[in-house]
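Task card 7
Instruction: Convert sequence to structure tokens.
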Amino acid sequence: MTLTVDRTAPAVDLPAELPGDLMSVADRLPAAHRERLERLREFLDAAVVPVVGPYWDREEFPFQLLPALAEQGLGDLMTTTDDRLLRGLIWAEITRADVSLSALVGIHNELVLGGIAAFGSPEQKATWLPGLSRFTKVGCFALTEPDHGSDVAGGLATTARRTADGWIVSGSKRWIGAGTFADFAIVFARDAADGRVMGLIVETDRPGFSASKITGKTGLRIMQNADIVLDDVLVPHENVLPGITSWSQANVALRESRAWVGWQAAGLQVGMYEVARDYALSRVQFGKPLARFQLVQQKLSEMASNASASLSLMAQVAWLQEQGRMEMSHAAMAKATATRLARESAALGRSILGGNGIVSDYRMARMFNDAEVLYTYEGTYDINSLIVGRALTGVSAFV
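Output:
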């Protein structure tokens, strides 16, 4: 983090540079992994942070960054990185730079590449994994529907009907990240014959498949979310993912992705803290840096504490994952807590920046709006809280 301070202001003792990871969570990593994380931060600060703002403003995706992301090894983290803490801190680091890019990289790894690696046939893996690992191929994860978000487990309406020529897939999907430019979609549907949940690889150039961009979003504007229509799309029998035989496999994917969003929320908080601290040290009012004012210091302290609490919580989640002990309630608690704290920190950071806090040029405005997305997607805050409540009481409040 580079501080820019107005040297014309009255002299003030400035503190040494403080990293966003105040509790030194990354110090638990082996030296080689810490070095990898540091190289990633340098890359993101040099190649991503300075360029993503205009794309956010225009709701466009910076496709030219994909080869560079692949060079950083971000196309195949799920198959090359076993260290859960390292993977989580990588998610956090990308989110610190931009939430939309972290969403693309995370969905790509956790749900698409990871889904094919876990549930695909040998032929499906051979067909898709090499291109996915290099970001020369991009997939999307099509589960949520226009009428079924939080209740999609019981309300899944998309159907697949078996024929001699293959499966005819019919239905609609909504909020599908990268759906406008993906090469294929992993589509969840019900077998029309018996209601069984199944997963199918549906190439996006098949007749009857259409995707339209959802515009006017107030956050996650770089990510190209799509409405998808599947109008009797015929896919061959070999496109069925053999490892998905019931809702339980989708539930495992959702559990892991909720933990991933917890890391996103932690990384966003680190980024917001750093932006707010830089601004407080450089912005001069009443003849002194904002950092000299008590109310500003209080807000910075709360932001730093929220980020530290979230990173520490997520480090424990990574340990549970490595032990094979993470339950849905753990992931839900982590996601709900970290996104709630991110929302609080977003309001504090925006306040520190004053009027500049609502201008996207200053990053905080983008972060403020992106925090609202994290609070809502991959299970809303309310639903995740109720999942925790169900685990605590043994009584379900929603199903």
